[in-house]
Amino acid sequence: MKKNSKQTVVVLDFGGQYKELIARRVRELKVHSQILPGNTPIERLKEIAPEGIILTGGPHSVYEDGSPRADKELFELGIPILGICYGMQLMTYTLGGEVKPCRVSEYGTVNVTVDDESSILFNDVERDTVALMSHTDRVVKLPDGFIPLAHTADCPVAAMSNDKKKLFAVQFHPEVERTKRGNTIMSNFLYRVCGVEGDYTIDDFIAYEIEKIKEQVGDKQVVLGLSGGVDSSVCAAILEKAIPNQLTCIFVDTGLMRKHEGDEVEAAFANKKLNFVRVDAEKRFLEKLAGVTDPERKRKIIGEEFVRVFEEESSKFAGSFLAQGTIYPDVVESGLTNGAVIKSHHNVGGLPKDTKFIGLVEPLRALFKDEVRELGRKLGLDSKLVERQPFPGPGLAVRCIGEITKERLDILRDADYIYREEIEKAGIKCGQYFAVLTDMRTVGVMGDGRTYNYVLALRAVNTTDFMTAEYVHIPYEVLDTVSSRIVNEVQGVSRIVYDITGKPPATIEWE
Ligand code: XMP
Fold first, then answer.
1. What tens digit of pLDDT does each residue of 83-114 get?
2. Does residue 175 carry a catalytic annotation?
3. How many helices, marked H, and strands, marked E, lie in the chain?
4. Is 392 in the pocket of ligand 1 (CB under 6 A)?
5. Ligand 1: residue whose CA is nearest its atom 10
């Protein structure tokens, strides 16, 4: 591949779960970064001639048999190096210092005292700060030529340097948010030690990825499953820039989308240079779901039917590449970084053996969600699409409690649309907000007649990690407007309630 003409920092991976986060911090500081295995030959590093090298953490101990090692020559290249956690221990061990197990392992946020406030690495960092530590070994004897820069209660050398050789190391993790001045420390290393200019922008990322996609795909065709969500949409947008006319996007309309959503997805891609296939599968999905009320059964049926429809449609594209909007958190959740599976994602680990596809294209695999959004904006996608709130894969099926029918889905769609419209009009900040159609009916009165219609629930939450959430304090006036509009404009709803539970004890969705 064409060598990137931008300044580069190489992240040498020793098995740490934060390598992508380190690379991301470097990108944020406007420097191109490249992750390479810890055992990358010195010759290769010389060819790349990076402005700096960062050694990641890792789960090993330098004294363990088979633990990743470094060549002494690495530290003699004259390239500035920052060792993080295991990277620091490796630097120490390789250069003749000593590393020993801690009496007490340090895990979590700890107080760090900067001993050498004149150090270039701690420029603009207060003497007392906090950092995330996660280690069982520590440096007990510095290699020749090094001085200690900081300590914690249980770690006498929390940072060290040999300024003459431009070698720096920290026992804590500057790349995580919980390290208060981590960004400053990373920036000091990049700008003050490595002397970078900050010449990397998202346009460079786009240009680089486009080259990579072109090289991988050649003249073959690519098929992408497009859901209309942020990740698959941004993936489609970058693929279209890279290989116009070689891309087919298959959008399976399950009939479980929100009001106008299917048309919006189609409109967003209609004028692009790609083959957009909208599969109207509403009937199939609703037939399969008829009479099913158990939420997990609904999910299972929808998941299976989705795969079936996608396989049927994509079977026309044997010998093509399959593209996916996998992003870095999906890779982490699937346990591909440290073996801990949180949630398996479709095909994240590679293509299944019996596939007709010839390979996977995943241009967003290194990116975090906010970076994907920025990329989408840069690629000219509508901001409404790029900022879209999360929407569950099984769609409205998990918001339509009880039996799923077209009539009930339409009631939910209309009510949900009004609710979202009013929340947006009122400018209320919510992470996720939606209506839920319950299976409970209550007595009401409209005009002179008695009604017996559904209870509709409104939900709005704020969350950062989706593990916990708080309900939003929507002003009564807004709830008033939503309520009167829904009962007046939507037939089939006689009562509206607002959900005031957080997560825990509730979940965000009702099913
Ligand atoms: P809960 O309801 O578990 O939701 O608090 C947490 C987040 O996950 C979304 N969610 C789903 N997403 N398939 C998905 O793709 C599902 O089955 C599913 N269930 C919940 C939910 O919308 C929220 O953002």
1. 999 999 999 999 999 999 987 788 889 999 99
2. yes
3. 14, 18
4. yes
5. 392
